[in-house]
Specification:
Blueprint lengths: L7 H5 L5 H8 L6 H9 L3 H14 L9 E5 L1 E4 L28 H11 L6 E4 L9 H14 L4 E4 L2 H11 L3 H11 L3 E2 L9 H7 L6 H13 L3 E8 L5 H18 L2 E8 L15 H14 L5 E2 L3 H4 L1 H7 L6 E4 L20 H10 L3 E4 L8
Parallel strand pairs: 1-9, 1-10, 2-3, 3-4, 5-6, 6-7, 7-8
Helix pairs in contact: 3-11, 4-12, 5-6, 6-8, 7-8, 7-10, 10-11
Bound molecules: iron/sulfur cluster.
Iron/sulfur cluster binds next to loops.
Length: 373
């Protein structure tokens, strides 16, 4: 899409967006107030059009303008026995409680040997704050994983898990990450960021590391050469100001390190949680989160719709709102399924490609770090 192809008549309906439109057209950075103005506007199509324009306009290679990425990946959740008490979490259990589960190292290794396809491009390992899983456990697990799946990228351990492993193992964050990297860790997922606003965290996850600490762990990881993703969880009592401030904090760190590959807006699922579903984001809220993330985060190349959370149909719609990645086949995910998502199931490559193609885009299989497969 060239600059003059931005359909002016759509924007003309909303004079409150005219200054933002000029900035987007000339690739200038949006301010906090711009972000708030975007959330306050009801012109969803204009916001989506701007976001899609920004997605294309920022590409270094225009040949990729219709690319939508997906990955052949396999999730492994090792345990749901967690010391955390996040109110939005349907996954955590106490030891001995019904549905509590726990993989020993031997069981995890057996799982990797027997259940994960050798053709998976990524094994995605996130679990819980479980005192049995210290640095030595993960060092051994990663080393075994490397041997069993030599061609599979290991994306594992949120910043929250890294901070916990560091605490229970007596190593600082840098030492912990370096040891894990030496053992085979390839990159970090973006989970655990939730929303950085301290007042919201105090309400829904007071024991979790602060947003500031999450950013510090990511900065150390990036400085060690580990790329990562970043997430933002909504529907837990945050305001649009909180969302913009969250994006700005991620943007600021990205200016320093360049280590974020992808930004992923996430939406709370309420079944089996302590958060009332009156907080539930609507379809318009979700599409705005995608589009405004794309517009504000001018220094992160990829924006993902996590289709096991949104459902593949909304993920498909988001492709006109700045999104260029709909995650992947996702074998064996438990965390979202336990919160009631009906979409947390594995899908075949053909199904993903069908939805992308029907949106007028080009499906492109990638590895974790966005090399084309
Ligand atoms: S969100 Fe993570 S840290 Fe919080 S209770 Fe659930 S598993 Fe534990």
């Amino acid at each position: 899409m060239k600059m003059q192809e931005l359909p002016e008549k759509i924007i003309d309906k909303s004079p409150e967006l005219s200054e933002i439109r000029e900035k987007v057209l000339s690739n200038r950075r949006l301010t906090r107030q711009d972000g708030i103005d975007l959330y306050n506007s009801n012109d969803l199509l204009a916001i989506g059009t701007l976001a899609d324009f920004a997605r294309v306009n920022r590409l270094k290679n225009p040949a990729k303008k219709d690319y939508v990425y997906w990955i052949n990946n396999h999730h492994l959740n090792l345990s749901n026995i967690c010391e955390g008490k996040c109110k939005f979490c349907a996954y955590r259990r106490k030891e001995g409680q019904e549905e509590a589960f726990y993989y020993t190292l031997d069981k995890a290794v057996e799982y990797l040997e027997t259940q994960v396809s050798k053709t998976a491009r990524e094994i995605h390992i996130v679990s819980a704050l479980n005192p049995s899983y210290d640095l030595e456990f993960y060092r051994q697990l990663l080393q075994q994983c490397r041997k069993i799946l030599p061609d599979t990228h290991i994306q594992a351990l949120t910043a929250v898990e890294i901070a916990y492993i560091s605490k229970i193992s007596g190593f600082d964050i840098k030492q912990t990450l370096q040891e894990l990297k030496n053992a085979g860790l390839g990159s970090l997922p973006g989970g655990g960021a939730e929303i950085f606003a301290e007042n919201v965290r105090q309400q829904v996850c007071p024991e979790k590391i602060s947003g500031q600490r999450w950013l510090e762990v990511m900065e150390i990881a990036h400085n060690l050469g580990l790329k990562s993703n970043a997430t933002m969880l909504t529907g837990i009592g945050e305001t649009c100001y909180d969302k913009i401030d969250h994006m700005l904090a991620v943007r600021e760190l990205q200016d320093k390190t360049g280590g974020f590959m992808t930004f992923i807006p996430l939406f709370c699922h309420y079944e089996n949680t302590e958060i009332p579903d009156s907080n539930q984001p609507t379809g318009v809220d979700m599409l705005k989160d995608y589009a405004i993330s794309r517009l504000m985060l001018d220094n992160i190349e990829h924006l993902k719709a996590f289709r096991i959370q949104t459902g593949i149909k909304l993920a498909q719609t988001s492709l006109s709102f700045g999104v260029n990645d709909i995650d992947g086949t996702v074998m064996e995910e438990k965390i979202t399924r336990m919160a009631g998502s009906k979409d947390a199931y594995a899908v075949k490559k053909e199904e993903i490609e069908h939805f992308i193609t029907k949106a007028g885009k080009v499906p492109v299989e990638r590895d974790t770090v966005y090399n084309l497969v």
